[in-house]
Each structure stands twice: as structure tokens, then as C-alpha cells.
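Structural prep section.
Before we set up the soaks we want a predicted structure of the protein with manganese (II) ion in place, mainly to decide which crystallisation condition to try first. Input record follows.
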Amino acid sequence: MSLSDYRKKRNFKNTKEPAGKVKPGHEELVFTVQKHDASHLHYDFRLELGGVLLSWAIPKGPSMNPEDKRLAMKVEDHPFDYKDFEGTIPKGNYGAGEVIVWDTGIYLPAGGGTDKSENEKLLKKALKKGDIKIVLLGKKLKGEFALVNMRKDEKSWLLIKKKDEYSSGVDILKKNKSVISGKTIEMLQKSDGRKKTTKK
Ligand code: MN
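Run finished without errors. Recording the C-alpha cells verbatim:
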């Protein structure tokens, strides 16, 4: 999995986003969800695999309701270090706008165990099949989820919560603070001097 598409889109002199190295060497697989107010507000859902972050952009954000099928557009892999990125991507740069770490934690493939390389094998197979079943242990997102390729093209996937003890009809997106800094997108915009009126 290469980061070249990621790097091509960015000028690292102008943005504080990490240029990124492939970084293995820790025990657990990490996921992160970044709320990103670019030209359109969306949530970037990222799963560590093979030292990088597989990435999907979810316009409506994740849901804890098994009846919601949230469109997730597969985008280029991001460097592992991106998982902690929070701040403002300056105007004129790719993805310009504010980013907060909306949720993060570890995750497992469904049926996975404690062996990271075994888990990665299961995930690579699932990715190829276009049917990834995972268990998230985040601060907001918990329990089983499925990411399913829609077949019409490689990029269109759906994120669906599986029914379990954590599924619910409560709108999880109302929890709108960063799990790292406690900041909201709106707070970043204030300190940017950027004003917007329509906001979720
Ligand atoms: Mn984004």
C-alpha cells in the first residue's frame, strides 16, 4: 500500500499534515475518525493496516443505528501518523479546512484474536472481498460494524452498525468534541477567524 497518492495531493511546506512513514511495530491495530470541515463537512474513517491507514470519507458520518447505511467513499491511504492530526489545513491546500479527531481507539477484525499479524491477514482478505467486519473499541464508536463494497465501483462502500449491546437510535454525532483536545470544529474556526453559518 503506497502513500504516493496522498503525498501527490499535498505540499508539506504549506500544511502541517504529516508527510508520513510506514510505521509498524506496535501491538494493536488502531482506528480513527476525523471530523473534517473541507468544502463539504464529512467524517474520515481510517483503519490501520500494513502500517498505513485505509481511509473512507463518510459524508453523513457514522451511526450506531443498524438501520442506517452510511455511504463511505474509499480514498487514498493515509500515513499512520495522520491518526492524531488535528488543526487547520490552510486555504488553497488539498482538503483545506478544520480537522478534529472525533474518535479513536483500537479495533479487531470480527473473529480476530490477539495476534496482530493474524488479524492483518484476516483484514487483507476481507478488504479484497469488499466485506470488512470489525469490532471497534473507541470512545464513541463501539461494537461490531461492517464496511461493505457496493460492487458498482471500487470506491463506494457502506458503513453499517451491527445489532449488538452498543447499537442504538441515539445520534452519536451530537457528541461533537475532539477525543484528544475537547475542541469542536466551531472552536477551531473561531480561532482561525473563519466564520460559517451552516453547521451540524
Ligand atoms: Mn477528509
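Observations: The pocket of manganese (II) ion is lined by residues 36, 38, 42, 44, 57, 95 (CB under 6 Å).
Flagged for discussion at group meeting.
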